[in-house]
Write a structure and sequence with these properties.
Number of strands: 14
Oligomer: single chain
Structural class: alpha+beta
Shape: rod-shaped
Largest sheet: 8 strands, antiparallel, barrel
C-alpha cells in the first residue's frame, strides 16, 4: 500500500520528466549579429588601402593604354601623309620644270624638223630617230631630233645595189634599218621607183611637208619569197659567259636580317597574396589541434617582390628581393575535457588546449631565369607570356628555396624604347621552410599582379 508521500513523489517525478524530456536550449539573442558580423568580415585600414591601390593601378593602366593607342593612331596618319607626298613627288617630277627651259629646247628641235621635211620623203624608223621632247598639251607638234649615227653601208654601196637590181631584175632590195642612213634609204626608194620596181617600204607614206606619220604593217620585203634567198645572213653576236657551277650558300632565316636583337633593361614590382601549406611533423606524443590560417586579405597575407635585370633574345636574367609573412594559430592539447552544446544544440565533448600563435617574416634574395614570349601577329597582338625558375635564400632562417613561376599579360607603349608590362603572376615553392621552434613545415605559393618596365637600348 502506497503512502501519500509516495503519491506526491510520483507526481513530482512525472512532472519533472515531462519538463526535462522536452528540454531545448534557447538560442543566444546575439547569435544573429555574430553571424552577420562574421560573414561581413569587417573592414581594416590595410584592406581599404589595398583595394584603393588596386583601383588606382587599374585606372593608371587604362590611362596608359588609351594614350598609347592614340599615339599609335597619330603615327599611322603621319606615316600615311608622308607616303602620299613621297609618291606624288616621284610621279610628277617633270611637271616642276620651268617654262623657260621648255621654250629654249623647243626652238632648235623645230628647226631640225623642218630641215628633215625639206629632204625627200623617207620612212621614219624608231631606231634611227630619237624623241627629244614630250607633248605637254593636246594639239601641240612633236619635235624630233636626228641623231648622228655611223652606218654599215654608204651611198656607193646603195648605187651598186640599184645597178645590180636593174641588171638582174630584182623587185626589191632588203636592207636593215641599222645598216643604212635615212637619206640613203630615200635615195634607194626613189631609184627603185624610177626603175618601176615598186616601193620597198609601202607602209611608209608622206602626208605633207613637216608632218611625218608612222604607219604600221608588214613590209613588202618580208612577204616577197623571191627576196629571201638574196638576204645576207646576219647572226647575233653575244658574249656568252662560260658555264660555271654555282653552289648556293646556307639559306638565312627571314627574321635574321629583318629584326635585330638588342639588350633590354627590366625593372618590376609585384604585390603578392601568400597562401601556405602547413605540414605537422610527428614529435614526442604532443597533439596539436585547432589550426587557424589567415583567410582574408590583410597585412598578414600580403607580400611583395622587387625585380631588376636584363633581357636579350627573349631570355631574362633577374635579381629578386621578396618578403612575406607566416602567420597562423593553433593549440597544444591537454588532458582536460569539457562538455558543451554545439551549433545544432547537441552536446559534445571538447578537448581543451593551450593557444599558440606564430608570426614570422620571410625575406628572400635570389636569382631567376625566365623565357619571355610576345605575340606579334594580328591575333592577341602585344600579349606576352613568360615562365621560369628561381633560386632564393631566406635571410631569416638561412634556408635555400627553389621556385617555379609563370605569368601572362599585355605590353603597353610607355615612351620611346620603353614598354610597360601588366598581368597576373603566379609562383610556387618546391621547398618547405622549417621552423626550429616548432615541428611545422610551411610550403608557400603566391598569386599577384606583376607591373614592370622594359627599356630597349638601340
Amino acid at each position: 500500500m502506497k503512502s501519500s508521500d509516495e503519491r506526491i513523489d510520483e507526481e513530482l517525478r512525472k512532472a519533472l520528466r515531462e519538463r526535462f524530456d522536452n528540454f531545448e536550449r534557447l538560442p543566444d539573442p546575439t547569435l544573429r549579429e555574430k553571424i552577420f558580423q562574421g560573414l561581413g568580415g569587417g573592414t581594416s585600414m590595410v584592406q581599404t588601402g589595398l583595394v584603393a591601390s588596386l583601383l588606382l593601378l587599374i585606372a593608371l593602366t587604362a590611362t596608359v593604354y588609351l594614350v598609347s593607342y592614340s599615339v599609335e593612331k597619330k603615327r599611322e596618319v603621319v606615316a600615311g601623309i608622308k607616303q602620299v607626298r613621297r609618291e606624288l613627288s616621284n610621279v610628277l617630277p617633270a611637271s616642276s620644270k620651268s617654262p623657260a627651259r621648255q621654250e629654249d629646247r623647243q626652238e632648235p628641235e623645230t628647226v631640225a624638223t623642218h630641215q628633215v621635211a625639206s629632204q625627200p620623203a623617207l620612212p621614219i624608223e624608231s631606231n634611227t630617230v630619237s624623241k627629244a621632247g614630250e607633248s605637254v598639251q593636246a594639239g601641240t607638234l612633236r619635235a624630233t631630233r636626228i641623231v648622228a649615227h655611223s652606218y654599215k653601208y654608204k651611198r656607193a654601196d646603195v648605187v651598186k645595189w640599184v645597178e645590180a637590181a636593174r641588171s638582174k631584175g630584182f623587185a626589191s632590195i632588203w636592207v636593215g634599218d641599222k645598216d643604212i642612213s635615212p637619206a640613203d634609204r630615200a635615195f634607194l626608194e626613189s631609184e627603185m621607183a624610177k626603175a618601176d620596181f615598186g616601193n620597198g617600204m609601202p607602209d611608209s607614206t608622206v602626208t605633207g611637208e613637216g608632218d611625218i606619220k608612222e604607219l604600221e604593217g608588214p613590209s613588202l620585203a618580208d612577204q616577197d619569197i623571191g627576196v629571201l634567198d638574196h638576204r645576207p645572213m646576219a647572226l647575233p653576236k653575244y658574249n656568252w659567259e662560260p658555264d660555271s657551277l654555282v653552289t648556293p650558300g646556307k639559306p638565312q632565316k627571314r627574321y635574321e636580317f629583318l629584326f635585330k636583337e638588342h639588350w633590354s633593361f627590366i625593372a618590376g614590382l609585384t604585390p603578392l597574396r601568400t597562401f601556405q601549406i602547413l605540414t605537422v611533423r610527428p614529435g614526442n606524443g604532443v597533439v596539436y589541434q585547432n589550426f587557424v590560417l589567415p583567410a582574408k586579405i590583410s597585412a598578414q597575407t600580403v607580400g611583395y617582390k622587387v625585380s631588376a635585370g636584363v633581357e636579350r633574345s627573349g631570355f631574362q636574367l633577374l635579381v629578386n628581393y621578396g618578403q612575406f609573412k607566416q602567420s597562423y594559430r593553433y593549440e597544444i592539447a591537454t588532458s582536460e575535457f569539457a562538455v558543451g552544446p554545439d551549433l545544432t544544440g547537441n552536446y559534445e565533448v571538447v578537448r581543451k588546449g593551450i593557444p599558440q600563435e606564430e608570426n614570422s617574416t620571410v625575406r628572400l634574395v635570389g636569382m631567376a631565369v625566365k623565357k619571355h614570349t610576345v605575340r606579334r601577329s594580328h591575333f592577341l597582338r602585344n600579349y606576352f607570356g613568360d615562365f621560369g625558375a628561381e633560386f632564393s635564400r631566406d635571410l631569416t632562417s638561412g634556408k635555400n628555396m627553389a621556385w617555379v613561376n609563370a605569368g601572362f599579360g599585355k605590353e603597353l607603349f610607355a615612351g620611346n624604347n620603353v614598354v610597360m608590362t601588366v598581368g597576373p603572376y603566379f609562383e610556387y615553392s618546391l621547398s618547405k621552410l622549417r621552423n626550429p621552434d616548432n615541428p611545422f613545415k610551411i610550403q608557400p605559393y603566391q598569386i599577384g599582379l606583376s607591373v614592370g618596365l622594359r627599356y630597349t637600348r638601340k
